[in-house]
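Per-record layout

source: Geodia barretti
name: Radial spoke head 10 homolog B
length: 156
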Amino acid sequence: MEGYVERVVEARRREVAKALSRSSIGESVEVHRPLADLIIDRCEGMRINGKLDGVCRAIFKDGHQYEGEFHDGVMHGVGRFTWTDGLVYEGEMERSKITGRGTYTWPDESTYSGGVVNGIRHGYGVYYSPVTRTTYSGHWVNGKREGKWTFGDECT
């Protein structure tokens, strides 16, 4: 029996690492249309010179929703964007692009908090999956992980 638990833990760690390396969560690429291409169906909020400005709420033709800051008619500042598939982003926006610091939350409650450039994880961030109890803290470059992984509480 000695060594059995260690072998099981190591096998599970490899299995999780392999699954994450193939998943869109582990190696993210942009899977949604750029936000600047979305067409607003209806909105609530202040307008300056006919353009949304300040804190506003927008519902897009495809059902996605954004609640947050607008400037000169575009999403700019801090806000919350919710896709119809359940993915949520809360954080900084720059000229209708998810850029800055923020948090993605997937329908399975996995999260990524950290740097984002054009909707792709970039810079320091923390990914956590409650399903696999997997945490990764480190650097991302163009959506790909770089650095050391921490798997659950028991091993790295």
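summary: Confidence is low (pLDDT under 50) at residues 16-25. The longest strand covers residues 51-60.
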